[in-house]
C-alpha cells in the first residue's frame, strides 16, 4: 500500500539537491572552524547537538516512545518529542532523502505526524538581487552622462589658455634673491620702474617695451629673473610654457594665444612670462608639412598680439630660451622683443654671491671658505652651484656630521664633475699602467706654460672614467689662443705617450680612445674653422644645421675641392703628430720624476693639484710651475 506521506517526500526530493550545496558549504565552514579553533571542539559540539540518531529514533517509534513527529520538508529535518518530554526539550534530527522505513513505522504506531515547512526567503532574495542590478545600471548610466558632459565642457574650453595666473604676483622671489648676474638685473630693473611709474617715461615720449627676451645657457637663472621682476613690480603675473600652446589640433594654439592676451589686457598692467619660447617661436618656412601647420599658426598669432593691429598696452612679455639661433627673425625685431638680455655664466664674484645665497639655509662649518669654492668652480651655473651645496649637505647627513665641511664640498665637486665614486682598482699591472697614463696627462699639463692648472689626478673610478686628471679652466672661456689649444692637444696625448715610453708600442691600451677623439676634433676645428693652420684664414666647414632652419635633409656637399680636403687631412694629422712628439719629449726628459709621482699616486690613489705642483717644482726648479701654483692658490 502506498504511503500517504510518500508524495510529500517526493516533492521534497527536488529541493534536496538544492539543499546539498547549502550543506556542502556548511561542511566547509565547519572544516575551516576546525582548522582555526581545533577539531576536538567541533567533534564535541557535534556530539552534543546530535543527541538522537536515526537508529535510535526508529527503535523508539517501534516501542511507542515517540509522542510527536514534526517534519520540515524544506530542510528535511525532523523535530521529535519523546514521551514525557515537553516541546522545548524536543530533539532535532537530520533525515535522509528516502525514509520509507521510518514513515511505515510512524504509521503503524499511530505517531502524531505533522508537516511544517520553514519560511521561504527565495522571493525576497530574488527581488533584492533585481533591485541591486537596477541600481547598478542606473549608476553606470549616470557616470556615462557625466563623463559625456565633462567631455563637452573640455571641448568648449579646449582653446582657452593654460597660463597660471597670480593676481598679486606672490612669486616669493625678489632681486635680492638673484645673485651672480648683476648686468642682467640692471637691465631688467627698468622694467619694474616702467610698471610702477609709467608716467615717468611717458612724459618725455618714451614707450613701455613690449617684450624682454632672456637668452643664456640652461641653469643660469632666466626663470628666476622673471619671477623676481614680477615680485618686485607687484603686478599680476601670467606664467606659461611655450609647449603648452601647441596641440595636435590645428588652431588650438592660436586660440590659446588670443585668450592669454585677452586676459592679460583685462589685468593690465601685468607681466606674461613664456618659458622655452623656442618650442613655439622657431623659424617658419621649413618646407615640411606645408606652411599651415599648428606651430606656424600659433607663432603668427603671437606676432600679431605683440605688435600687430591689436593694441596691448601695459602688457609686457618676458620670454626665456637657450636656443636664440632657432627663433624666427620676425619675433626678434624691435616692437616685439625690444630688449634681448644675455644671462651668461657667472664670474668669480658672481659665483661667490650665488654660494652665499644658497648657503644661508644650510649648516656650514666655519672652516669652509666660499672664496675657495668659487675659484674651484669656473663654468658652473647658478643651478650647478645650488646642486653642489645640496650634494654636500646630503653627504654630510649620510656621514652623520653636524655641519658641512670642506671634505664634503670637495667630494660634491668631484661627483658633479665626474660622477659617483666607484670601487678602487686592485693592485696589479693594470693599476700601474693607469697611473702612468694619468700622471703623463698631469705632468705635461703642469710643465706647459699655456695649459690650465691641475686640480686633481686620481685613479678612483668615477662614472664611466677609470681614472682622470682635472684642471681649473680660466675665467675667459671661449677665447682660447692657438698656444692654449696646442697645449690641450699635448696634454690629451700625453697619456698615450707615457704608455709608449714606459711599456712600449705593443702594450698601449684603448684607454686613450676619448683623448684621441678630442684631439682630432680640436685639430680639425683649428684647420677648418679657426684659421690656425698653413691653409690660411678660411672657414672651410659650417656647423650642422637643423631641418627647420631651411637646410637639406642630407648633409650638403663640402664647399672645397678634393685637393683642399687632402690638405685638411694632412694638416690635422700633422698637428696631432707634433703634439704626440712634444708630449713624448717632455716625459723622456722627466722620466725619473714620473716614476716618483706614479709611486705616490698608486699609494694615495688621489693627489691634489697643489701637492703635485709642489713636487714637480722641487724636482725641476721651474718658474712655470711656481707661477701656476700662485694662480691656482
Into which percent range does the helicity of residues fall? 40-55%
- Kindly state the number of beta strands: 13
How far apart are the first and last residues' alpha carbons, in Å?
125 Å
Shape: elongated
Radius of gyration: 45 Å
Largest sheet data: 6 strands, mixed
Strand order of the largest sheet: 5-7-8-9-6-10
Q: Kindly state the mean pLDDT as a whole number?
A: 77
Strand content: 5-15%
The number of helical runs is 22
The structural class is: alpha/beta
Q: Key terms for this structure?
A:
4-stranded mixed beta sheet, single chain, 13 strands, alpha/beta, 633 residues, 10% strand
Write up what this structure looks like:
- The chain starts with 5 loop residues before the first helix and ends with a helix.
- By secondary structure, it is an alpha/beta fold.
- α6 runs parallel beside α8 and α9 packs parallel to α10.
- A hairpin with an 8-residue loop joins β2 and β3.
- Helix content is 52%, strand content 10%.
Amino acid at each position: 500500500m502506498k504511503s500517504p506521506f510518500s508524495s510529500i517526500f517526493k516533492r521534497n526530493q527536488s529541493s534536496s539537491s538544492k539543499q546539498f550545496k547549502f550543506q556542502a558549504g556548511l561542511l566547509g565552514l565547519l572544516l575551516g572552524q576546525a582548522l582555526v579553533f581545533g577539531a576536538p571542539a567541533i567533534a564535541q559540539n557535534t556530539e552534543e547537538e546530535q543527541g538522537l540518531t536515526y537508529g535510535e529514533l526508529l527503535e523508539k517509534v517501534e516501542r511507542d516512545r515517540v509522542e510527536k513527529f514534526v517534519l520540515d520538508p524544506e530542510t528535511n529535518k525532523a523535530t521529535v518529542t519523546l514521551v514525557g518530554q515537553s516541546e522545548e526539550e524536543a530533539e532535532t534530527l537530520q533525515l535522509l532523502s528516502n525514509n520509507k522505513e521510518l514513515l511505515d513505522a510512524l504509521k503503524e504506531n499511530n505517531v502524531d505526524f505533522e508537516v511544517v515547512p520553514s519560511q521561504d526567503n527565495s522571493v525576497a532574495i530574488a527581488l533584492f538581487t533585481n533591485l541591486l542590478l537596477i541600481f547598478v545600471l542606473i549608476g553606470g548610466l549616470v557616470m556615462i552622462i557625466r563623463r559625456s558632459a565633462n567631455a563637452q565642457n573640455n571641448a568648449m574650453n579646449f582653446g582657452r589658455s593654460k597660463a597660471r595666473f597670480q593676481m598679486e604676483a606672490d612669486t616669493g622671489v625678489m632681486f635680492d634673491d638673484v645673485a651672480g648676474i648683476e648686468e642682467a638685473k640692471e637691465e631688467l630693473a627698468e622694467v619694474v620702474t616702467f610698471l610702477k611709474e609709467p608716467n615717468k617715461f611717458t612724459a618725455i615720449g618714451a614707450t613701455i617695451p613690449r617684450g624682454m627676451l632672456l637668452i643664456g645657457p640652461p641653469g643660469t637663472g632666466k626663470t628666476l629673473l622673471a619671477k623676481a621682476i614680477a615680485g618686485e613690480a607687484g603686478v599680476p603675473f601670467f606664467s606659461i610654457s611655450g609647449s603648452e600652446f601647441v596641440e595636435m589640433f590645428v588652431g588650438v594654439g592660436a586660440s590659446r594665444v588670443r585668450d592669454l592676451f585677452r586676459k592679460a589686457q583685462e589685468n593690465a598692467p601685468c607681466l606674461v612670462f613664456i618659458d622655452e619660447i623656442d618650442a613655439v617661436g622657431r623659424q617658419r618656412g621649413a618646407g615640411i608639412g606645408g606652411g599651415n601647420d599648428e606651430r606656424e599658426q600659433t607663432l603668427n598669432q603671437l606676432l600679431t598680439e605683440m605688435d600687430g593691429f591689436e593694441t596691448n598696452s601695459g602688457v609686457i612679455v618676458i620670454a626665456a630660451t637657450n636656443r636664440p639661433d632657432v627663433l624666427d627673425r620676425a619675433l626678434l625685431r624691435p616692437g616685439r622683443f625690444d630688449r634681448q638680455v644675455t644671462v651668461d655664466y657667472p664670474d668669480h664674484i658672481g659665483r661667490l654671491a650665488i654660494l652665499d645665497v644658497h648657503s644661508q639655509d644650510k649648516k656650514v662649518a666655519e672652516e669652509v671658505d666660499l672664496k675657495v669654492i668659487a675659484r674651484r668652480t669656473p663654468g658652473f651655473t647658478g643651478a650647478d652651484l645650488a646642486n653642489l651645496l645640496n650634494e654636500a649637505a646630503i653627504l654630510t647627513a649620510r656621514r652623520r656630521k653636524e655641519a658641512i665641511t670642506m671634505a664634503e664640498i670637495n667630494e660634491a665637486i668631484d661627483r658633479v664633475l665626474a660622477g659617483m665614486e666607484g670601487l678602487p682598482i686592485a693592485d696589479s699591472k693594470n693599476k700601474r699602467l693607469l697611473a702612468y697614463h694619468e700622471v703623463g696627462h698631469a705632468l705635461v699639463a703642469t710643465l706647459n706654460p699655456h695649459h690650465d692648472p691641475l686640480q686633481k689626478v686620481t685613479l678612483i673610478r668615477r662614472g664611466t672614467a677609470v681614472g682622470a686628471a682635472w684642471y681649473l679652466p680660466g675665467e675667459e672661456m671661449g677665447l682660447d689662443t692657438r698656444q692654449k689649444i696646442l697645449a690641450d692637444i699635448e696634454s690629451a696625448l700625453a697619456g698615450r705617450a707615457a704608455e709608449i715610453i714606459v711599456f712600449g708600442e705593443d702594450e698601449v691600451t684603448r684607454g686613450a680612445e676619448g683623448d684621441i677623439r678630442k684631439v682630432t676634433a680640436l685639430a680639425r676645428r683649428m684647420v677648418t674653422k679657426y684659421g690656425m693652420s698653413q691653409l690660411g684664414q678660411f672657414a672651410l666647414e659650417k656647423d650642422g644645421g637643423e631641418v627647420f632652419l631651411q637646410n637639406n635633409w642630407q648633409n650638403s656637399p663640402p664647399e672645397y675641392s678634393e685637393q683642399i680636403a687632402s690638405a685638411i687631412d694632412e694638416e690635422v694629422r700633422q698637428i696631432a703628430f707634433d703634439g704626440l712628439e712634444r708630449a713624448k719629449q717632455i716625459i723622456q726628459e722627466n722620466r725619473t720624476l714620473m716614476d716618483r709621482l706614479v709611486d705616490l699616486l698608486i699609494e694615495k690613489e688621489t693627489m691634489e693639484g697643489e701637492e703635485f705642483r709642489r713636487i714637480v717644482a722641487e724636482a725641476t726648479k721651474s718658474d712655470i710651475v711656481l707661477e701656476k701654483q700662485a694662480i691656482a692658490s
